[in-house]
Amino acid sequence: MIIHFLGGSTRPIHTLLARFQKEAYMSDDIDVLEITAGNLQSQDWMKQSARPLSTIDLDPDLLSSIVKDAEIFFNPSSRRFYMSTGHLYCKGYLLYGPPGTGKTSMCMALATHLDLKVVKINMDGMDDKDLQEAFNLDTDCANVTRRPQGTTNEYQSGHRDSWAPENSSFDLDIYGSGLGRQPQKPKTPKVVMLSGLLNIIDGVSAPTDRLLIMTANGPSSLDKALRRPGRVDRDFEIGYATKLTAEMTFKWVYGQDELRSYTLQAIDRMAKAFHDQFPAQSHITTAQMEDYCIALRDQPAEAVKRFVQWLHRIKPGEDGFTYDINDAEVDGPDSEVNVSDPYDAGLLDLVSEDYVVPPEEINQSSPEEEDEVPPPWLDIPLFAI
């Protein structure tokens, strides 16, 4: 391949080649290792679908801030920079917001973007010693998830981290309140205590060369000891969907579909209508938006038309998520939440040029085309329970 470039610098060529090299080595899957209390020495790696950053529907400025900061941290020069300033080479993030807003997806997208492995450590049934052993495994990464078990005073969870060959990134999901207080009546013989977790994060034997990402529904329910500088250096609110992020979801769901019937220009026009009618103040998560659009696959106009009806159905709580109301920020009267705005119905008017294959051509198939054998279906199982 020969590349010709007019200019006085070769930097654009090197940037282009570096991008080609990165995309060539990037896989469609992420390597995932799950470790449990009864299988601390597990080395059974699994494949999980990669999550491109393009599928993360966050405000562009917020997404850019998170990604750029992580890229700087994993830059080869960063370890030397931290050492020169007398700091340990480690950093902590806190992503907080209601369930379904994309916190875990953001972590997986970062792992995809930075080409990191992921280890899931299910902390249910572990004590401090087990957790320390899990972190000390000879792997390229580690990851933690916390799930609520019984009373809010128990800290029993799973843990998810990921790191590059010379760097590490931990992703810790935290739910509930009263984290780390001594449980009065533990339901299992083993419990990870707050003191044990803090010792692993930044104690004498704590691992360095890592980025710790904690995710939580309600930040105020977290113990202040977890949020002090050095453990959480930056926090990012991952909130409900907005007009902008709803339009982004609409575009990538309908625009990237190989079975789409409409041109990208037509989809962009319908996305504008969807943006206009989306509530100025919503309690709708990005997960709900994705499910709604995917349920109406290749029906973007119907997605716009049926949105108000769907909005009324979830308004009283149907199809909604449970959220710690004590941590919610009140933006205004409840009557102003999830109220749709008007839109120009003319944006949904379709002409022949708006279709990938005009309707008149679909109805004029030749006898040879009618005899064509349809492509084979995917060879995957169907489960019925």
Automatic annotation (TrEMBL):
<protein>
    <submittedName>
        <fullName>P-loop containing nucleoside triphosphate hydrolase protein</fullName>
    </submittedName>
</protein>
<comment type="similarity">
    <text>Belongs to the AAA ATPase family. BCS1 subfamily.</text>
</comment>
<dbReference type="InterPro" id="IPR003959">
    <property type="entry name" value="ATPase_AAA_core"/>
</dbReference>
<feature type="compositionally biased region" description="Polar residues">
    <location>
        <begin position="146"/>
        <end position="156"/>
    </location>
</feature>
<keyword id="KW-0378">Hydrolase</keyword>
<dbReference type="GO" id="GO:0005524">
    <property type="term" value="F:ATP binding"/>
</dbReference>
<dbReference type="Pfam" id="PF00004">
    <property type="entry name" value="AAA"/>
</dbReference>
<dbReference type="InterPro" id="IPR003593">
    <property type="entry name" value="AAA+_ATPase"/>
</dbReference>
<dbReference type="InterPro" id="IPR050747">
    <property type="entry name" value="Mitochondrial_chaperone_BCS1"/>
</dbReference>
<dbReference type="GO" id="GO:0016887">
    <property type="term" value="F:ATP hydrolysis activity"/>
</dbReference>
<feature type="domain" description="AAA+ ATPase">
    <location>
        <begin position="89"/>
        <end position="242"/>
    </location>
</feature>
<feature type="region of interest" description="Disordered">
    <location>
        <begin position="145"/>
        <end position="164"/>
    </location>
</feature>
<dbReference type="InterPro" id="IPR027417">
    <property type="entry name" value="P-loop_NTPase"/>
</dbReference>
